[in-house]
Amino acid sequence: MRVLLGLLLAFVPAAPAHADNVEPDHVARAAAIRPDDPGYAGQWGIVRTRVNEAWSSGRGNARVTIAVVDTGVSRLPDLAPRMLPGHDFVNDDDDPTDDNGHGTMAAGVAAASGYNHTGIAGACWYCRILPVKVLDAKGAGSYSDIAEGIRYAADRGATIINLSLAGVDDSQQLRDAVAYADEKGSLVIAAAGNEGASRPDYPAAIPSVLAVGAVDEHDARYSWSNYGAGWVDVTAPGCNPAQQVNGVIGQFCGTSSAAPLVAGIAGLLASTDPVPTIAEVRRALVGGRVDALRSLAALPYAGDTVKPTVAFGATPSPARGVVTVSAAAADQHGIARVQLYAGGRLVGSDAAAPYTFRWPSTTGTVALDLRAYDRAGNVTQIRRYVRADNTAPALRVYPRASSVTARATDASGIARLELVADGKVAARYNGYLRWFGIPAHARTVQVRAYDRAGNVRVATVRR
């Protein structure tokens, strides 16, 4: 008997959003990556699940393939460079072009290229995409085609198999196909369904399938999302911007949208070293609303030899007084601690972002070293030379009856000279040498010299 599946889809065209064209911000309080893709400004789900923070330590790997078993996938510029040859089980040919739009949007949420001025930023930028068409132009398909599509993806080495589709009936045919994919080492992820019911939908309710429900920006379940602690394994943002087959960006809502976001995060996890097993990836994802950083930290890290990344934040030079030094650090399995050394001496150690240190600066050129340690003990050290100046400038004054000439010198350079009459600034000059006229009837007169580090020297001219 042929069983048809309802497609889980809501697509509302929207005016293109615009993000600032900026480079990744590597200071400690802004370590998350902000891509320049036009649709990124509306991708609250990426931020909510901390995928943008996980990008600091990895954005996927070409060894990981995400199979999109759906209505097909069109070769949009955001997807085409990483698309593998696929198959159409509806028309029995090798052209899995999308004639509906649903599969293309699912593929984009999972794996659209990021930071390329195009479309949106998918979760896994460098994962490959395997298009498998099992649903027709109306979004319906038979269990037999879906089962064949799952087996096809598994045979071609798909690491992740995304199924943004659901039916109300259980099926041994689907169970056998999922078991086959399990044996081949594929993680099958499926949408829980959009009836707002606790009744299980399939294939999501098959025990080894990772079933995904949908939540809003406050982590509350969308009223239309299916639910059930006994069979829904994880939730994810259920409304995500995506490109249709014509390239238009709009809201793609449903558990059909939540599932590929989890698939993309699974791709990030599978891209780490040492390579985790599919069972380890699944365990890291399960529970509550998906969180990319939490899931990365849950992976085993024994055997990890990949060093973390670390960068200085804004550090004043010349430095003066007690200076706040910030840092950003990232690692595929998490940062254990970051340390700051000044002139070879430990200033401080910080185990949680944002990484900040208070350094009592001295005078002269000082080597500042940042050391970042990951959970496996790998360490990365970087150095920055900072000139410290805590010495006031030299100042000479040449007073006359109604004027004064001031000359200041300092290794850091002079920022400005000020004439102060009766406690108020009467004149200011940005330079090191200046003649000032003294205001009539001024009783107290001083000259102040400021160096570029902010140190000040005061000379009294008249009392």
Give structural notes.
InterPro entries: Ig-like_fold, Peptidase_S8/S53_dom, Peptidase_S8/S53_dom_sf, Peptidase_S8_Ser-AS, Peptidase_S8_subtilisin-like, Peptidase_S8_subtilisin-rel. Pfam families: Big_7, Peptidase_S8. Residues 1-19 form the signal peptide. α3 (102-111) runs parallel beside α6 (255-270). The chain has a seven-stranded parallel β-sheet, with helices on both faces. It is built from eight helices and 26 strands. It folds into three domains: 6-298, Peptidase S8/S53 domain (Rossmann fold); 309-388, Sandwich (Immunoglobulin-like); 394-462, Immunoglobulin-like (Sandwich), CATH 2.60.40. It has 463 residues and is of the alpha+beta class. The radius of gyration is 30 Å and the shape is elongated. Helix content is 16%, strand content 32%.
